Amino acid sequence: MKVHEEDVVLRLQQVTKKAGKQVIVDQLSFDVRKGEIVGLLGPNGAGKTTTIRMIVGLIGMTGGDVLIKGHSIRSSFAKAISHVGAIVENPEFYPYMTGWDNLKQYQRMTIGITEERIKQVVEIVGLSEAMGKKVRSYSLGMRQRLGIAQALLHSPSILILDEPTNGLDPSGIREMRDYLKQIAQKEEIAILVSSHLLSEMEMMCSRVVVIQQGKFVHQQLIGAQQQGQEQTAANDIRIRVRELEKAEQVVRGLDGVQLVQLDTAASELEVSCNDEALALCVEELCRQQIGVYRIVEVKRSLEDEFLAWTGGSRIV
Ligand SMILES: Nc1ncnc2c1ncn2[C@@H]1O[C@H](COP(=O)(O)OP(=O)(O)OP(=O)(O)O)[C@@H](O)[C@H]1O
Fold it and tell me: In what residue span(s) does the ABC transporter domain sit (predicted)?
């Protein structure tokens, strides 16, 4: 995937946090770009909340830097943070006031927010109907969305949410996911969400960054984004043939095709290659009349991959 530098909204550069001798976040670097929903994923205690707190300047970092739209959170805090909308702890609202009055209250404390903008964000998070109701009657999901509306009021370039689906039921999680997707598109902003729930991240995000014990472990495009990448990336393919030995010789002689394993019982070979190399491989097998019975991509679930990346630490 081609990276346009001007699309990078958030950049972590070797971000490190130590508490005494303990290294909580260890030289963590990654980017988040406009239009992306990136999941910061890791098991409990991996350092997600600490990372997010450093990004939004709630705690200092021991080393490295965070750039938001190119502004350092360390040396240009006010400029950097002006581009951020965040919910790090549970959003606080006056329960005895309506949703609308809560947002109006926030507007009074913040320069440059128009009433038109309030209506716009309320619409985006699907709360137009509920604006006249007192916040104490809102469900947890509605409160979360009101928090997101408030975080969006000043038109930030990035929305940062720490465990936004905590405590939500499955339908609330689905709603949240749909709203975040709409927000990323309509507002053309970047979104960073943290979670230890792999299944949610898989549904919600276009990319996940996996951390464990404060360290970067892996990053992975998800869904449609991943499919685009697959045409050039190597995939594992199983090919069932009539003559396995001959097929093995052919495959070993081909550039760009790596033999992963032979399954003599099933008369199958597993190869790793990209789409172009696979096309040449199949052509060659057919040309030598080896008899190709079937070609199947070996699909690994994201969960299997995570178990491999994190050395068995399960992220449910
Ligand atoms: N100020 C601190 N002093 C010492 N240890 C700390 C401090 N802050 C966090 N930790 C430890 O650092 C580790 C990472 O904590 P953090 O809350 O960032 O993890 P997390 O990935 O958000 O976990 P969870 O999913 O459980 O919320 C934990 O082991 C925590 O106990």
Answer: 10-238
| Residue 73 Cα to ligand 1 middle (Å) | 21
pLDDT for res 316: 47
3-class SS at 224? helix
Q: Could you tell me if the CB of 49 is within 6 A of ligand 1?
A: yes
Q: Across-strand partners of 297?
A: 237
Instruction: State in Å: Cα 228 to ligand 1 middle.
Output: 36
The finding on whether 207 has its CB within 6 A of some atom of ligand 1 is no
ipTM: 0.94
Q: What distance lies between CA 5 and its chain's CA centroid?
A: 19
Helix residue ranges per DSSP H, the chain: 48-55, 77-81, 99-109, 115-124, 140-152, 170-186, 198-204, 223-230, 244-252, 275-287, 302-309
Question: Ligand 1 centroid vs 77 CA: distance in angstroms?
Answer: 24
SS3 131: helix
Task: Tell me: pLDDT of 312 over 70.
Answer: no
pLDDT of residue 39: 95
Structure-token pair, residue 274: 């990209």
Q: Which two tokens stand for residue 66?
A: 């965070």
Q: Which of 15, 23, 48 to mutate to test the pocket of ligand 1 (most atoms within 8 A of CB)?
A: 48
Amino acid letter, residue 100: W
Residues 205-231 pLDDT 10s: 999 999 999 999 888 888 755 555 545
Q: Model confidence over 32-86: pLDDT tens digits?
A: 999 999 999 988 889 999 999 999 999 999 999 999 999 999 999 999 999 999 9
Distance 198 CA to ligand 1 centre (A): 19
The CB of 43 under 6 Å from ligand 1? The reply is no
Please list the residues that pair with 253 across neighbouring strands: none
